[in-house]
Amino acid sequence: MGKRKRLVAEARKEANKTTYFAKLNDCPTSPRKMRQVADLVVGKDVYKALSILKFNTREASNRLEKLLKSAIANFEAKTGARPEDDTLIVKTIMVDSAFQLKRLRTAPQGRGYRIKKRSNHVTLIVDLKK
């Protein structure tokens, strides 16, 4: 590894020490459906976001709720402090598309229709309220 590449990698590692995040890879939900649920909680207090996700009826909200709990636990592990009310907020949620399973569905007159079963990667970042 070159010197410049090593310096950039070390800077990224130092930045990650003060960033509290959780990642979910290869989640079998379409990115659009996940983004619709993610937009409900971005910028909210973590406990309010948890209650929103708990009572939402979409399937993606269960996965996002579990991910948010993981991000809160990562915050507690890195800082050693408990997040009191109104101190920790959901800073950003990035939903990126992942692989697509390509399937065939039978169609009339001997044809076949293509089906794309989409999946996504989710990165959730929590931060202290300024």
Write the layout of secondary structure elements.
Elements: H1 3-17, E1 20-27, H2 31-41, H3 46-54, H4 59-79, E2 88-106, E3 112-128
Looking at CATH, which topology would you report?
Ribosomal Protein L22, Chain A
Radius of gyration: 19 Å
> What is the total tally of β strands?
3
Strand order within the widest sheet?
Answer: 1-3-2
How many structurally independent domains? 1
Mean pLDDT level: 94
- Text of the CATH class: Alpha Beta
Helical fraction:
40-55%
The backbone outline, from C-alpha atoms, is: flat
In CATH, the architecture is Alpha-Beta Complex
Structural classification: alpha+beta
Task: Please explain how this structure is put together.
- This protein has 130 residues and is of the alpha+beta class.
- It has a single domain (20-128), classed as Ribosomal Protein L22, Chain A (Alpha-Beta Complex), CATH 3.90.470.10.
- Helix content is 43%, strand content 34%.
- It is built from four helices and three strands; from the N terminus they run αβαααββ.
- The protein has helices at residues 3-17, 31-41, 46-54, 59-79; strands at 20-27, 88-106, 112-128.
- It has a three-stranded antiparallel sheet with strand order 1-3-2.
- Helix 3 (46-54) packs antiparallel against helix 4 (59-79).
- It is flat, with a radius of gyration of 19 Å.
- The protein starts with a helix and ends with a strand.
- The model has no long low-confidence stretch (mean pLDDT 94).
